[in-house]
Amino acid sequence: MIKTNLNSRKIIGRNLNQSIILVLLIIVISLFATLINPRFIRVTNLINIFQQISVLGIIASGIGMLLISGEFDISVGSQVSLIGMILAMIIQKVGGLPEGSNPNGFNSSSIPLAIVVSCLVGIVLGFINGTTVIKSRAASFIITLGFSSIYKGLALLLSGGASFMLFGKFETVGRGRIMNYIPIAILFFIGVVVISHIILSYSKYGRYLYAIGGNKKAAYVSGINTDRMTLTAYVMVGLLNAVAALILISRVGSALATTGDAYTLDALAAVVVGGVAITGGEGSALSIFLGVVLIGLIGNALVIMNVNPYLRDVVIGLIIITAVTISRITSRRR
Amino acid sequence: MESLTVLQAIGFNKTYPGVKALDGVDFDLQYGEVQALVGQNGAGKSTFVEIIAGSIRPDSGQIKIDNNVYPYLDPSKSIELGIQTVHQENQLVEELSIADNIYLFNLPSNKIGLVKESNCTQAANELLHELGIDIPAGKKIKQLTFAEKKLISIAKAFSRKARILILDEPTASLDEKGKKILFDIIRRYTQKGLSVIYISHNIHEIFEISDRVTVFKDGKKVSTQPIKEISLNDIVRQMIGRSTTNLYSREKGKFQSAEAGILEVIDYHREGVIEHVSFQVKAGEIFGIGGLVGAGRTELIRMIFGLDQKDSGKLIYRGKEITPTNPNDAIKKGIGYLTEDRKDSGLIMMRPIFENISLVKLAKEANRMLNLAIERNETQFISEQLNIKTPSISQLVLNLSGGNQQKVVLAKWLFAGAEILLFDEPTVGIDVGAKSEIYKLIDNLAAQGKIIILISSDNPELIAVCDRVGIMRNGQLITVLEGNDITEENILRYSMGVNEKD
To answer: Do A214 and B346 touch (CB under 8 A)?
Structure first.
């Protein structure tokens, strides 16, 4: 009995422990980077880091919640690319860009139209992913791998391989700053983190996600409509991808069929490093947030420390492997 | 023929947490003999043969084969010694051919290790012909019927030059024709020196095929006798033995009241699984369902709860039809289902106690947000009421003992306010103290006028807890025992289909 108690205290503290480890890691990396280049710790650089990770953070929050329910979506990068492409094409074609190609000047109503369509496309992509995963009963990892290829192909087909410039017509979301100081993108990022925290910790829906990820059969017998919850989670991921695409395209100022591709790996890395169990049922919005910060920090720190930036992917890969190994070892001890 | 011992078990002991699965079992198998093993669910037959097959190690005891003594066997050693097991479940690879399955672990290969398909098929065809099984070896397993698959499993055992063959419920999925082929094989090969350990619940066929019969009861061997010197009734009596001391007993029918409401289960049927089952349960009554494993009890309950498809079946409570279409619907109509396997489908092990307790109630109510303070208070209250032993309700369910885990599942359904409770093996794998606590809780629920249907393979439990006991066999509700007729002997007779006069 005493033995079980000790053991269980360890497990209760596990989530908190993981967050503490992440915070410590973040501090260590920050100190290191500051020692090598004191510019790192400047507020402008810190704000810069947060602005850079907003897109990643929004995508990661989505797949983090989805992974808590036990499902994967590795098509997120391609979704962002496709949505971004559609967004840029609408602004360019309906708006009449480059300026001068349309005698009436730039049609500014193209922007709200593009935003609405992007969000709708995000929802539809999420719906398609979710429905297929549920109906096929196949591993979501593989199904969304297939969709990743499809969405990437669609983005290429739509663009014909060309880049779609926005000529500075859609800059507010990605580059705008409130009072010339706080980037709007950061507000979106923080907003998404807060909302996902509310969903996961204070809503029934969040509780169901944990339950389904923890034991799908038990959740179903307990009266939870597991299919509907899973579908909703995919739709949520799609919508968040649309928000991420808005910010990303706005910041970059143009869309390519591959703009969002790299985000799949980084978002998965952030979520896994953030302590979401890949089998589902465990994780929190805060820890996903810390995972995102860590991944974002590594990229920035390497640049600031004047290390070859290509090393970033190697480091992130090592971190994923380490994080998963540590969590496997701790769970085996149970 | 002079008798010759091919296998001897000396003092097998095996203890699992809370259960003494085998208790000093001695056993011997003679050359050319068919020896039947019988006993109730959980009597220790499976554990016993698994030790011989090498998949379980005994805590103590010895296995003697051909004058060599082994403390335990592992599966490859067991096979090397000529021991082959045909399991109850199908263990064939569906996508491969019969020939490939038969020679899966010793495929005839050429010098460089390549398998020549035609050799393999030819060898398999010869073997099947020799055994009198008329199926072409090139066929894929998935094209076969259940009976044919069973025959192939048996053929597979013969491909490895078996001297000792263990058959676990071989006729459960065999039709009459298949059974005839099997018995013919057994008779021919035992004359050539094969020895067979034959486990079966079908007592009639034991008299047809076996030379001796060994009865197990609560992990102990009761007797081994030549089949000619024992009657069917003797066997049944030995399987029951002296009844174990009852830890619990309650007055029958003390809370039931037809006025307070009747649950009518009408004509539940699914082709080949459940055969037109109907019964009624009164409010405040505990209705038990007994029967052998595989009799269709769990399948019936799952259909009633709306988990599995059915061809027909209606559920009527207080005159109103409430047949659920899915678990969510069942819960909203006041039905609760405590599943057989709490780890598999009862609990979310990695989540805290209070989340598990409140889960069904959340799914039942319409609001979208949680009220964490109220949830905590209420789940705390119910956890204290049920005496769940834990320092905190934030504790992960994983850390609780089996009995306390089961109480969490129970708490989940009570918290949701279920009126009709379906319990499937509610006390499996939990200790004696927790068992009697759960019996008291169930009794309390009856006192509150709830309708309770309780499946159990533990016959003394049915006798102690239930007001009436329905017995199922082969998907049918054979009879409903009441009052003094609820005896272990009656439950067993009806479960196995043994008449008084046999």
So the answer is: no
